[in-house]
Each structure stands twice: as C-alpha cells, then as structure tokens.
Amino acid sequence: MSESYSLGPVRVKLPPAERFSQFLQSRGKRITQQRQVIVETIYSHHDHFDADELMEHLQELIAQRKLSRPTIYRTLAELVEAGMLRKMNLGGRSVFEHDYGYPSHDHLHCQMCNKLIEFHSDELEQIRNAVAREHSFEVHSHRMFVTGLCADCRAKQ
Amino acid sequence: MSESYSLGPVRVKLPPAERFSQFLQSRGKRITQQRQVIVETIYSHHDHFDADELMEHLQELIAQRKLSRPTIYRTLAELVEAGMLRKMNLGGRSVFEHDYGYPSHDHLHCQMCNKLIEFHSDELEQIRNAVAREHSFEVHSHRMFVTGLCADCRAKQ
DNA sequence: CTACTTGCAAATCATTTGCAGATGA
DNA sequence: TCATCTGCAAATGATTTGCAAGTAG
Contacts of residue B92 in chain A, CB cutoff 8 Å? Predict the structure, then answer.
C-alpha cells in the first residue's frame, strides 16, 4: 500500500480495486478473480467503453474460459451500483465511463466520427441548480450531450 | 384548410399530417392510410411516448390487421428523419417526443416516479455555444437530463 | 462446509428484415 | 402499370437468466 494512503484519519482515495473490494464486502459479496481482473482492466484504461470493448481487452481470459460474457455484464452492473461507473446509452448500446477519481463532465458528441469530447462547466451546474430549485426538484446528477461536428470533421467537409 | 394557413407568402406552420405528407412527397414516398393514422395519433396526444404506448392507442387497427408493429417502427423512423420527432433513449427503450410546433427544451427526470418535467433555458444554450466555440465544435442540437427527485416524491419521502 | 459465483446454453425483448401479396400515384 | 408498402414470420443482437458445477471465506 502506497504511503499516500496512510496519512491519517483523513478519508483518502483508495485505488479502484480496493474501493470495489470494500463495496463487495459491505454487501457480503465475494472478491473473486474475475471481479478483480475486470476492475483492474477497466481502470487501467481511460476511455469510455462498452461491454464489447471491455471484452476485447479480456479476450484471452475469455478464450481460456476463465471469464465469460455474463460475468462481465454482472460485474459492470455491480460497479454502477457501487457508484464507480456511470452507465449511459448511446445509440442503443450501453456505454460506461469512470465515475471514480474522475471529475464530473459533459460531452460533445461528433455524429460524423463518433468521438466524445469531454468538458466541464461550473456555470452549467449553476443554471441546472437554479432550474431545479424553481421546480422544487432535488438534483442527483445530470447528463448533457451536445451533438454536432468536431473540428476535424468540419475540416474534412 | 383553416384560414390561418392561407394568409399569404409567409411560411406558416402546417398541421403535422400535412407537413409529413410534404416530406413523403419530397422523397417519392407514398401517403398511405397507415402513415396517416400514425401521425394523427401521435399529434393528437401531447406526451412523451414509446413504441408500445403508441401501439396501445392503435390496438384496434392492429387487431384488425390494418396496421402492424413493423410499420409503426418504420413510420417512427421516418418522422424522426423528417425532423418532426426526437428520439431519445431512456433505460434501454426508445422514447419519442414531438419536435414540431414545440419549443426545444430539456428534462428533469424523476427517478422515483419516472416523470419527465420539461424546462427551457436560454442561458444554458449560451453556455453550450460558448463551450462549443472553444472546441471549434459545430452544434447541431443538445440533450440534457437532470436526474433526481420531483417535488411530489420528495414530499412522500 | 455451504452460500455465493461462474460458465454455459437458452431465453428475453425491443427492434429489424426478407419476402410475397397489396396498394397508392 | 408497377414501384412503393405492408403484414407476417423469422432474424437480430445486446443483455439476462436458470442451473449444475466451482470456489471463496
């Protein structure tokens, strides 16, 4: 365990694998090899991904029958439940993104090349909160997608 | 045709069924009874809806075999293509909302009762445009969902 | 031990497609 | 007339589930 995780009573950020282990234990669930490999694989990449992309990274284990599709889907659901992943829906398929040790953000989605560009705006959140207040709505989170063309694709046009 | 549609060369708003007919003609597609009933049914209601809800309203015709599921899906796709409906994805299933004669808006989505509350904010669009400009991104549209609890559900808590 | 997990195969479920007969322009 | 449409049945394709065998604690 790295020194930065033992500086005192301050609640410091745990590595994803450990945070997930704590979540599992708190639910009486087991820390299996499959769940560990999956978390590690997910957090060693920094992109958005869908179940298929994740499975590509885990192909070898799947071929060896050490891991299967259903288990990957089951574990993704647990990570969402643990609040460590966000699940979004882009054109019918589920897309996930890290929600642990990663600042909240929104997306510019290029409809030509399908690229996702992240951005964050405090002003946006202020407006969101003001609107919610007007409706006596309690905000838990939000998601915003701006659809259009990215700089590269505009150039190619 | 009502008088308000013949006031001169000004481009006035056509009733949805007519607007759709024009779209179909411009594509060499036919104005069939099925397509007409579907548009009329959709625009005689003012809610968000999914394919199943629409089919409930058209049950009778479906039972009489005057209309079928595939045709409904095909027509919904055409209405989206015509720019008269917006398609969104809420929890895996496709949800549609009117996008004709209806101002653009965003949503507060209550995760308890599943209600959708609409709102519009010019400031939000300004921020959206500013962010896009910074990324040389060309905006076509956007979609924002704020998730949380509506006033009613907060009261019941 | 033994309750939780997993891989497998099969089931779901909304949506889509191939095709032969029906129908609008 | 005849290209476009439609209903039907079957296909899709991502995700989920039942179940018997495997395994963490």
Answer: 89
**What is the dotted CATH code of the domain comprising B16-98?**
1.10.10.10
B110 touches chain A (CB under 8 A): yes
The encoded tokens of residue A122 equal 């405090």
Pairwise pLDDT comparison (A67 vs B113), residue with the higher score:
A67
Q: A79-134, pLDDT tens digit by residue? A: 999 999 999 887 778 999 999 888 889 999 887 777 889 999 999 999 999 999 99
Give the phi and the psi of residue B2 in degrees, each rounded to 5.
-70, 150
CATH of the domain spanning A106-156: 3.30.1490.190
Has this prediction a pTM greater than 0.85? no
E-strand ranges in chain B read 49-50, 85-90, 93-98, 106-110, 116-119, 138-149
Residue at minimum CA to C1' distance from nucleotide C15: B73
Residue of B nearest to A132 (CA): B108
Contact status of A142 with chain B (Cβ, < 8 Å): yes
